[in-house]
Design brief:
Layout lengths: L1 E2 L3 H13 L15 E2 L2 H11 L3 E4 L2 H7 L5 E5 L11 E4 L2 H6 L5
Parallel strand pairs: 1-2, 3-4, 4-5
Length: 103
C-alpha cells in the first residue's frame, strides 16, 4: 500500500520496486501492490487486508498498525525510534531489500 498523488506517482513507485528487483525475486507480486490517496484510507485499507508485511513512510500509520500487522517497514531518511519489535526501519526500500542476501 503506497500513498500517491496521481497515476504518474503510481508508475514511479512501481518502477522503483521493479528496479530493486522485488518483482523478479518473488518478494512482491506487482498486481498486489496497492495505492491510496489519503492516510486515513490507507490505514483502514491495510487493517482490512491484514497483510503479513506493510511498508509505510508515515510514523503515525506505522504506530497505529503496529499491533495489527505482523511485520512493518518504516521508510524514513531519519533514524527513528523502534515502535515495536515487529517494525523495522530503513532510509529506503533499496537499502532494506538490498541486504537480503546478508540476513
Amino acid at each position: 500500500m503506497e500513498h500517491v498523488l496521481d497515476d504518474e506517482s503510481e508508475e514511479k513507485v512501481l518502477s522503483a520496486l521493479s528496479e530493486a528487483g522485488l518483482f523478479t525475486s518473488g518478494s512482491l507480486v506487482r498486481e498486489k501492490v496497492l495505492f491510496c490517496s489519503t492516510e486515513i484510507g490507507r490505514t483502514s485499507f491495510v487493517r482490512q487486508l491484514e497483510p503479513d508485511w506493510h511498508i509505510d513512510s508515515s510514523p503515525e500509520i506505522v504506530h497505529q498498525l503496529s499491533r495489527f500487522i505482523k511485520y512493518q517497514l518504516h521508510i524514513s531518511p531519519q533514524q527513528t525510534e523502534r515502535v515495536s519489535p515487529n517494525v523495522f526501519s530503513s532510509a529506503s526500500l533499496e537499502q532494506f531489500f538490498g541486504g537480503l542476501d546478508q540476513r
